[in-house]
C-alpha cells in the first residue's frame, strides 16, 4: 500500500469515527469525499502542526490549520450520526 493510500485510509477512518458511520470505498458521499480531499491536501502542508503521532494517526493543529479543520467539520456535519447510549 502506498503512502497516499495509507493516508487516505487513515483519514477515512477518522471521518468514520467522527461521523459515527462506516463509509467505504467506492460508495463515499460527495460531501464526505470533499472533506477527505481537503484533509489530505492540508496534511501535506506541515505548517501549523503542533503535535503528531503515527500509531493512532493523531495530529493536532494550531493557527491557520484550525480553519481547515472547521471547514472539514462543517462539510461532515450532515453525515454525523448521534450515538445512542
Strands, helices and their partners?
Blueprint: H1 3-19, H2 30-43, E1 49-53, E2 58-61, H3 65-76
Antiparallel strand pairs: 1-2
Helix pairs in contact: 1-2, 2-3
Overview of the molecule:
- The chain is mostly helical.
- The chain has one domain.
- The chain is built from three helices and two strands.
- Helix 1 packs across helix 2.
- The longest helix has 17 residues, at 3-19.
- The protein starts with a helix and ends in a 9-residue tail after the last helix.
Task: Indicate the percent of residues in helices.
Answer: 40-55%
Radius of gyration: 13 Å
* Total domain modules: 1
> What's the pLDDT, averaged over the residues?
81
The structural class is mainly alpha
SSE pattern? HHEEH
Shape label: globular
Distance between the termini: 37 Å
Q: What about the largest sheet?
A: 2 strands, antiparallel
List unreliable stretches of 5+ residues: none
Strand content: 5-15%
Spatial order of strands in the largest sheet: 1-2
| Number of DSSP-assigned strands | 2
Q: Count of helices? A: 3
Amino acid at each position: 500500500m502506498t503512502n497516499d493510500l495509507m493516508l487516505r485510509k487513515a483519514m477515512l477512518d477518522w471521518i468514520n469515527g467522527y461521523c459515527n458511520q462506516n463509509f467505504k470505498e467506492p460508495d463515499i458521499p460527495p460531501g464526505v469525499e470533499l472533506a477527505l480531499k481537503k484533509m489530505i491536501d492540508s496534511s501535506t502542508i506541515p505548517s501549523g502542526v503542533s503535535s503528531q503521532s503515527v500509531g493512532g494517526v493523531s495530529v493536532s493543529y494550531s493557527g491557520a490549520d484550525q480553519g481547515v479543520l472547521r471547514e472539514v467539520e462543517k462539510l461532515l456535519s450532515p453525515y454525523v450520526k448521534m450515538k445512542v447510549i
